[in-house]
Amino acid sequence: MNNKSKKIVAIIQARMGATRLPGKVMMEVNGVPLIKYQVERIKRSKLIDEIVIATTHKVDDDPIVELCKKDDIDYFRGSEKDVLDRYHVCAKKHNADIIVRCTGDCPLVDPEIIDKTIKLLVNQGADFASNTVPPEKRSFPEGSDLEVFTMEALERAHLECNNPHDREHVTFYFWMYDNGFRTVLLNNEEKDFSDYRYTIDYPEDFEVLSFLINEIYREGIDGTVKEIVSLLNSNPEIKNKNSKYKFGIGWENE
Predict the structure, then answer these.
(1) What is the DSSP letter of 79?
(2) In angstroms, rounded to a whole number, what is the distance separating the alpha carbons of residues 103 and 144?
């Protein structure tokens, strides 16, 4: 990878107000909130310079801010619905050149995949890189989701995008339409793992994540995508707990 002079900032969007599973990012496994597991995993990236949790101004989201203050995690408060604006203001405040978008419902994101996606963006000179969108071409599990984009692309999207639904979902404007952005997709070198799920939207998802987190720590492994898939293959009853839920369900209006 070249051009490491660019500042790379991971922004984790998180809020307490999810309709399907309220407070999901602060649900605890062994007394530790899921979002704290996520921050610790993102810290293992070799390329990210800063990590920020971007939440909202709502009083309901005060617990997220209190956790950040307690654990010395950078945070930002912005618009609840205009998440594109939340990212834009947060990224500018932190002088980001490249933004890694993480969502609070993916606590087991793989730091190796983070760095591969960043390198793909930089080496290809792209505006936007991901490992899971567009969904019909993805080969990574739901729960490993990553999106990386340049500040220039974010500036343009913030200026041009006027659809409230697209602004709520931040990156739709990059990849869902023919808007002239240079987009690239990271393919899984192992095989197609797209039917695996370890994100969190429903109580069954929490059961799966609780199992995986406990097994990762019990076995003393890194919890890479390949290792998580192996754990799920070895425990089909766990894998099947949330298999009825489709990719992208979190994009629906809550």
Answers:
(1) -
(2) 10
